[in-house]
Amino acid sequence: VNGFSGLYIPAFPKNYRLLQPIDYLISKAYMNVVKPDLVHETYYQFHSASPKSCPTVVTAYDLIHERFHENFRIRDTTTLRKRASLRRAQHVIAISESTRRDYMEYFNVAPEKISTVLLGNSFPIAKNTRPTTKAPTLQPYILFVGGRRGYKNFARVVQAFFTKIGR
């Protein structure tokens, strides 16, 4: 879809743990150049690449690692990374009211620090429609948090959005 811009960074190989420190350093250098007003962390990390003065928001997905810890490796660090991300975030976005309650209970997140923002859309998806190539205006807009590979059905989300706003 035309009208969107950004920096394309190719995906790392599937087993990229060894490259994570390099990714962190590149991200930190990039953040110091662009000086963002706000950083939205979409997954849990021990350290933020954003400048210390920049407020952060983190998305809270679920407590799978905490509720079903026996299904993960003993050295899995997801819960520790969640705690670190939640501690430094100025605000937390929960993907459901249930997730919001779980994070308040399990991680002691203050109610005023966490909001529920549901995933998905609230309008029916029309069949056999195609998005236009006309560039969108500033509003309405869409925030899609996630990978754009096939399993997230990103193309269909964009198609539904543009169909809904009549573009």
> Over the alpha carbons, how many angstroms does the gyration radius reach?
18 Å
- The dominant shape is globular
Helix percentage range: 25-40%
Q: What fraction of the residues are assigned to beta strands by DSSP?
A: 5-15%
Low-confidence runs (pLDDT<50, min 5 residues)? none
- Name the quaternary structure: single chain
First and last CA, distance: 11 Å
The largest sheet is: 4 strands, parallel
Counting helices, strands and paired strands, the structural category is alpha/beta
Mean pLDDT: 78
How are the strands of the biggest sheet laid out side by side? 1-2-3-4
H/I helix tally: 5
Order of helices and strands: HEEHHEHEH
Count of distinct strands: 4
Secondary-structure blueprint:
Elements: H1 20-34, E1 39-41, E2 56-60, H2 64-67, H3 78-88, E3 91-94, H4 97-106, E4 114-116, H5 154-164
Parallel strand pairs: 1-2, 2-3, 3-4
Describe the structure.
The chain is globular and about 50 Å long. A four-stranded parallel beta sheet has the order 1-2-3-4, with helices on one face. The chain has helices at residues 20-34, 64-67, 78-88, 97-106, 154-164, and strands at 39-41, 56-60, 91-94, 114-116. The chain is of the alpha/beta class and 167 residues long.
What's this, in brief?
By secondary structure, the chain is an alpha/beta fold. It is 31% helix and 9% strand.
Salient structural properties:
167 residues, four-stranded parallel beta sheet, alpha/beta, 4 strands, single chain, 5 helices
